[in-house]
Design a protein that fits this description.
144 residues; alpha+beta; 24% helix; 33% strand
């Protein structure tokens, strides 16, 4: 399960310390993962705007984390990839997001191949940006 991380908080519970990771998958769906201290050596990968692959296995009829792998050839950057100040006009920024959406929808060979790691990252960033701009919030089945 590949997600782009939006927030990481340090938590503590009955089973010890853990990291609560909230992010979005390639389809723009919000995902929450609790990463226990068993994975303490991988906590450094869990940074805002990093994209990681949670390898899951089924154990006792429950899906649990089997490994955490950074997406790409290097560790995720500790800085945010989005620019907070820009000299481009809002219309120009909107044009570029529209172009990215069209390239993602077109797919290969003329567009972006969303099955590659780079394509998955672009798709995740695109959906996250659209959700942010449009004010979309995904709630769980219970409405919370």
């Amino acid at each position: 399960m590949i997600i782009t991380i939006k927030s990481v908080t340090e938590e503590s519970g009955d089973y010890g310390d853990y990291r609560k990771v909230i992010g979005v998958d390639g389809d723009g769906k919000e995902i929450t993962k609790n990463v226990g201290d068993r994975w303490k050596d991988k906590w450094g990968l869990l940074q805002e705007n990093a994209t990681v692959n949670f390898k899951m296995i089924q154990k006792n009829n429950k899906w649990v984390i089997n490994d955490i792998i950074p997406v790409g050839d290097e560790l995720p950057p500790s800085t945010k990839p989005y620019v907070t100040e820009t000299k481009a006009a809002p219309q120009e920024i909107g044009m570029w997001w529209k172009e990215m959406g069209e390239m993602l929808r077109a797919g290969p060979p003329a567009g972006i191949d969303s099955t590659t790691p780079a394509g998955k990252l672009m798709r995740s960033a695109y959906y996250a940006q659209m959700m942010s701009v449009l004010g979309i919030e995904i709630k769980d089945k219970e409405g919370g």
